[in-house]
UniProtKB/TrEMBL annotation:
The keyword Metal-binding does not apply. The lineage of its organism: Bacteria, Pseudomonadati, Pseudomonadota, Alphaproteobacteria, Hyphomonadales. It is an enzyme of class 5 (isomerase). This is peptidylprolyl isomerase. One of its GO terms (biological process) is protein folding. Gene3D superfamilies: Cyclophilin-like.
Amino acid sequence: MKIRGFAAAVALAGLLLPACAEPVDGTWSFETPEDVAASPDWRPVDPERLFIFDTNKGRILIEAFPEVAPNHVAHFAAITRSGDYDGTSFHRVIDDFMAQGGDIFALKGRESGQPSVKGEFTFRRDVEKMPLEATIGPEDSAKHGYYHGVPIQTQPSFFAEMSVDGLVESSIPHCASIVSTARTSDPDSANGQFFLMRGYSPHLDRLYSSWGRVIEGQDVVMSIKTGSEQNNGSVRDPDILESARIAADLPEAERPKAYVLRTDTDTFRAALEAKGEVNICELSPVPAVILE
C-alpha cells in the first residue's frame, strides 16, 4: 500500500497563504500507512462519503458532507451508483471560477432519472451538536470556521440564544476545492450537473448548494481544459469524467483510504489564530493523505 498526497511530510504551514507565510509548528512525517492511521491528528474519511472521479486528466477524490446538504449528497450518490456519470464531459470550464460537468442528457439523450432536488443553500446548525472546531476570531462571535476540514460561514453562535429554533444559519462558501450544484433560474431545479470550484466565487454563496470538498486532485481540477470566454466557458473537445464511484462500493482492498487533517486540535487552532482576521477562502484547503 502506498501513501499519496502529503506523504513524505505534511506541514501545517501549507495551510497558510500567501506562499511566503512563515512556517508554524506542526509537521508530520509518514513512512508507513500505519503511521497515518495511528496519528491522532488525522481522521479517516468514511468510505460512504468518499466519491472517486476518474478523469482523463487524473483522479479526483471528494468528501461529501450530508450534515450540510443531505438531499444533494443522497442525490449525487444515487446518480454515481447508477453509472450515468461515466463518459460525461466537463462541458463548461472557466479560469479562476469552476469546472462544470455531469451533463447526462448530452451523452445519453435523457436526464438522470432522479427527481430534481430542492435548494439546500444554507442549513440550520446546532452549535452544541455541530460546533465549529476552529474559528476565525472568538468562537462565540465568529462568522467563519471549520467543521471536519470543510470551511463554514455562519451566523455567530450567540445568535442561537435569540433564534426560535435555537439554531444558527450556516453554509459552505464557494472556496476553491468546494463541490457545488448547477441549476437553472429555478432554485429547486438542481439535477445531474455539478461544478468543482477552481477559485473563490462569493457571488455563489447561499445561492447554490455546496455539498462536498475535493480532498485530493485539486491539481487535476485546475488542469481541466477551459472553454471559450465568448461562449460562457463552453468547451470544444472537453475533458471526460471516465468513471464515478463511491469508495464503499469497491472491495475493501481496492478502496483508496483517505485521512484528513483534524481541525479540532490545539495545533490547528493556534495556526489559524495566528492568521488573525482573514477570509477563510484565502487559506489553502485543509490537507489530506491518501493510502492506496
